[in-house]
Each structure stands twice: as C-alpha cells, then as structure tokens.
Amino acid sequence: ELQMPNSIQTRLAGMGKGGHLFSTFVMGALSALIVGPCVAAPLAGGLLFISQTGNVFLGGLSLFALSLGMGLPLLIIGTSAGHLLPRVGAWMDAVKAVFGVLMLGVAIWLLARVLPGPVSLALWAALAVISAIYLGALDAVAVGASGWRRFWKGFGVVVLAYGLVMGIGALSGAGDPLQPLARFTAVSAQPENRTEAPHFTVVKTPEALQNALAQAKGKPILVDYWASWCVECVRMDKVTFADPRVKAALQGRELIRVDVTQDDAASRALLKRYDLVGPPAFIAVAADGKTAAQQEGYLGPEAFLQWLSRS
C-alpha cells in the first residue's frame, strides 16, 4: 500500500479540522487532483468532439455539463455530513486489494501494446498466480470454516489453475490471455481457418503514399492507416483481414498500408491528407483516383464486407 508520509497526513488532518476557508480550499484542490485523472478520458473525448463540430456554444455547454457532473457528487457527499459515506471496516482492505489487482491488470493491458505477446501473457500469468495465493489457494481450509472462506479458496484455486495455463501458453509463444493454448490448438485447426492478413504495400511518408497511389492508378485501391501501438489495428489484422471472405473481396484491389507508428511530421501529414484523427482508418479509392468511401475505427469481418461493398 502506497501512502503519503505521516507528517503530511498529520498536517492535512489538522487543516481539515480547522474549518477555515484556506484549509477548505486546499482540501478541494487536493480532491480535484484525485478526481482529475478519472475525468481525463471523458474530457479528451469531449474536446475531440468539440474540435470536430467547431460549434463554440455547444462546446462551452458540453464542458459546463461535464464540470457539473464532475463536481456535483463531491458537493452532495460533502454536504451530507458523512451520512452517505460507507462505514469504515475490514471490508475496505478487501476493496483496496481488488482495486490494486485491477490497476495492475490495466497496467499490463497498456504494456501489451508495446511488449511482445509472450511477455505480456507471462505478466498476466504472474498476476493471476499471485492473486490466487493471496486468496488462499495454497492454504488449508480449517475445520468449520465459513462458506465464504471456502468460496474464496475455490475461486483462488480456479485463478491459480488459469494462471498456470497462461504461463504454459507464454512459454509456447502464445500472447492472447483469452486463448493461452492457441499454439497447441492451432495444430489441429482446419487449413481454411489458418489464414494470414493479405500483403500490403507499406508507406511511411506523404511522398511514398503519392507514388504508390500513382502507380496503382487505374485499379481500385484500399488505403489502410495502421500503427504498431494501435490495438484495434492488430485486431484488424488477426480477425478481419485474416478472414477468408475479406481476403477474397480484396482480390483485384491494390492494398496500401500507411504506417503512422511514429508521431512525427510525416505521420501528421499523412493523417491530415484525409482529415483523420488516427488509426485504424480505411479509404477506398476508385479506379479514377477519387475517394469512394472512408471509414475510421475497428470493423469486424461482416461490417467491413458491407462497407467494402458500398464503396
């Protein structure tokens, strides 16, 4: 458990009991620091929406509503004199442990974007095994133990078993925590299901994209905006582009992949060409060189085929 030094905690506790305006202001500022990261993602989405609409009035009203939603719960709890707050007890230690595991899981999920698949799967396995030990998976159940104690023991055993399975999968080279034994089951898979994504001509600069479009003129073109850190891009390769129906539908089209992994001037210029926010994005270019359709965001095989048929 991470805590502030005792001297700082004592000083903050003294300020909270003073009832002065300055101490109240300081506590409110500290509360804003705590709540701020929680609202950062919605705020980023709201700012992105406002920038796309270009409506100043709508933007101001949206941010005003967001600020009310952020501050109103704090005001209600603060004026309730503690009646709305749960009572302190041992259950709060369990809550802290659960949220600690969730935070570690989010950290692994974020690292999975840049780490190799087997490494991220090994981290998932370690988290599951350690959590199972904390739940008492390896401890003996005392005679006369409560039903809840037996339940958590059984749940810990299940988590421990799955953690060991993920560890075996990581050693085999797998990278998906939902399919840790994929390397073993792939041996018995049907040949038609073991397809790979089609080959794309990769470009990284506006000049290279222009040359690729010029060389493919006279043929329908699919331009795919992609990045190595983009989770949905990797998902598109594994699910959508690997689908046999999608591969068949893309035959006869020139496939160009725009790599915007690096956040540099070239990548920003490539995104600006079609007014894109980021990958994944797809642009269908007709044989005459004009843009026929444009799509941003992940599409499954069925949705992608429908979009492709309309372009």
Automatic annotation (TrEMBL):
GO terms for cellular component: plasma membrane. Gene3D superfamilies: Glutaredoxin. The chain crosses the membrane at residues 21-50, 56-85, 97-115, 121-143, 155-175. One of its GO terms (biological process) is cytochrome complex assembly. It is a multi-pass membrane protein. The keyword Membrane applies. SUPFAM superfamilies: Thioredoxin-like. Pfam families: DsbD_TM (PF02683), Thioredoxin_7 (PF13899). The keyword Transmembrane applies. It comes from Acidithiobacillus ferrivorans. It is found in: Cell membrane. InterPro entries: Cyt_c_assmbl_TM_dom, Thioredoxin-like_sf, Thioredoxin_domain. Keywords: Cell membrane, Cytochrome c-type biogenesis, Membrane, Transmembrane, Transmembrane helix. Residues 175-311 form the Thioredoxin domain. Its main location: membrane. It comes from the Bacteria. One of its GO terms (molecular function) is protein-disulfide reductase activity. This is Thiol:disulfide interchange protein.
